[in-house]
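Appendix B, example 12.
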Amino acid sequence: MTENEIGRYIVDAAIKIHREMGPGLLESVYEIVLAYELRQLDLYVKRQVPVAIKYRSIRFDEGFKADLIVENKVIIELKCVEKLANSHKKQLLTYLRMADLKLGFLLNFSQSLMKNGITRMVNGLADG
């Protein structure tokens, strides 16, 4: 399954959850439910995944924790904030580079319409 195919499942699941649960809950609630929904689609999902980083020639096993990684290909960062800051987008792009992944989603569940809370970020991925 390609990153873009996985991305379609992620977006559909996020919209479904937002419609059912509404905006403004804790990020951890959306994380649990989104992981559940994606697993129901037979996708491999890991939560709170430690991602190693390299600094100079030193490897640190737990540089950061990704909220969700789907099929070892797509990072999902969940937010529940009034408005996303540029730093949130920069953070996800850095996570993608550090994890050597090509696609990530920043999902802000505080928006009144979920489609307005979805930010797709790429790190060298062709559209498709």
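The first strand starts at residue 45 and ends at 55. The longest helix spans residues 3-21.
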